[in-house]
C-alpha cells in the first residue's frame, strides 16, 4: 500500500487515477471483474488441508489489483497506439 502524506500530492495522484474508477470505466471491464471473482470462488471451493480461515481481504485485494492492472494496461496501450 502506498501512503501519500502531502494533501496536494495526494490530490494530484488521485486525479490521475480517477478515470479508472468511473462507472463507465467499470462497466467496460465488467466481464473481467466477473472472471476474476469466479476464479476467487473456484479457489475458495477447493478442498483445503488446513482448518485456518481464509484471509478474504487478501483474496479480494488480489482481484482488485488484477482488475486495476488490466485496466491500466488497456489505457496505456491506447495512449501508446495513438
Account of the protein in words:
The protein is flat. The longest helix is centred in the last third of the chain and has 25 residues, at 56-80. The protein contains four helices and no strands. It has one domain. The model has no long low-confidence stretch (mean pLDDT 78). It has 82 residues and is mainly alpha-helical. 71% of the residues lie in helices and 0% in strands. Helix 3 (30-45) packs antiparallel against helix 4.
Descriptive tags:
about 70% helix; 4 helices; mainly alpha; about 80 residues
Distance between the termini: 32 Å
What percent strand? under 5%
Number of strands: 0
Order of helices and strands: HHHH
Count of discrete domains: 1
Low-confidence stretches: none
Helix content: over 70%
What would you report as the Rg, rounded to the nearest angstrom? 16 Å
Structural class label:
mainly alpha
User: What's the shape?
Assistant: flat
* Quaternary structure of the protein: single chain
Number of helices: 4
Largest sheet: none
> Mean of the pLDDT scores?
78
Please write out the topology:
Blueprint: H1 7-17, H2 23-28, H3 30-45, H4 56-80
Helix pairs in contact: 3-4
Brief rundown of the structure:
With 82 residues, this protein is an all-alpha fold.
Amino acid at each position: 500500500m502506498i501512503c501519500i502524506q502531502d494533501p496536494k500530492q495526494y490530490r494530484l495522484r488521485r486525479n490521475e487515477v480517477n478515470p479508472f474508477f468511473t462507472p463507465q470505466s467499470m462497466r467496460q471491464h465488467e466481464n473481467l471483474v466477473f472472471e476474476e471473482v469466479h476464479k476467487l470462488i473456484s479457489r475458495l471451493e477447493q478442498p483445503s488441508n488446513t482448518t485456518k480461515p481464509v484471509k478474504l481481504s487478501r483474496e479480494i485485494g488480489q482481484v482488485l489489483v488484477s482488475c486495476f492492472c488490466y485496466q491500466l494496461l488497456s489505457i496505456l496501450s491506447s495512449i501508446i497506439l495513438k
